[in-house]
Design a protein that fits this description.
195 residues, mainly alpha, two-stranded antiparallel ribbon, 9 helices, 2 strands, Phage_TAC_11
């Protein structure tokens, strides 16, 4: 995976660059009616998606990767004649590259912006971009990884004394405690001052 969210894949004998930057993820969510993370999950699970979702993912990814719009639409129209399973696998790779970035340097918890249905709350990205002095076009051109790295740097520069965020394990433990429904405090922290 790459920091800018691109992946180069062969499609019917031609190698294309696919990329889903934030603006492309937003466009894909609008055209499919599904959150990109949920769509990726459906591709991996092999159920509850339409071939149109595969075609739209690849078409939007082509446009995001630099293919001119008319050519991307022409390529997408030809997909109907190709074997379905390899196309689903390519669409999943395109989505994963756009959503995950590089595994070498994890930054932030960008996935936290997605709701239970996998839809991304893009208003939060626009609000954060405005706070950082980024225009909409600049923000939309970034990959999710790039935006998370930019936001992480901005936050560190503006509040270097801030407490470190919870680790994934700490978040999971807190969530498990909250889901337990117990009215008491987490184990190891008795409420000594409780009435």
């Amino acid at each position: 995976m790459s920091r800018d969210g691109h992946v180069d894949l062969d499609l019917d004998g031609t190698t294309y660059r696919f990329r889903l930057a934030l603006g492309d993820l937003e466009a894909l969510q609008e055209v499919t009616g599904q959150g990109p993370a949920e769509l990726l999950h459906r591709f991996h699970a092999g159920r509850r998606y339409r071939f149109r979702d595969v075609r739209d993912t690849l078409r939007v990814g082509l446009i995001g990767g630099g293919t001119p719009v008319p050519r991307a639409h022409a390529v997408a129209r030809r997909l109907d004649g190709l074997p379905c399973i390899p196309l689903i696998a390519r669409a999943a790779l395109v989505l994963a590259a756009g959503l995950e970035g590089t595994e070498e340097e994890p930054v932030g918890r960008a996935g936290a912006a997605a709701g239970a249905d996998g839809r991304i709350a893009f208003a939060a990205f626009y609000a954060a971009a405005a706070a950082m002095g980024l225009g909409p076009a600049e923000m939309r051109a970034m990959s999710l990884w790039q935006f998370a790295a930019y936001l992480d740097g901005f936050n560190r520069a503006h509040d270097p004394a801030a407490a470190a965020p919870l680790t994934a394990a700490e978040e999971d433990a807190l969530w498990a405690w909250l889901q337990g429904g117990a009215p008491g405090a987490p184990e190891g922290h008795p409420e000594e001052d409780a009435p």
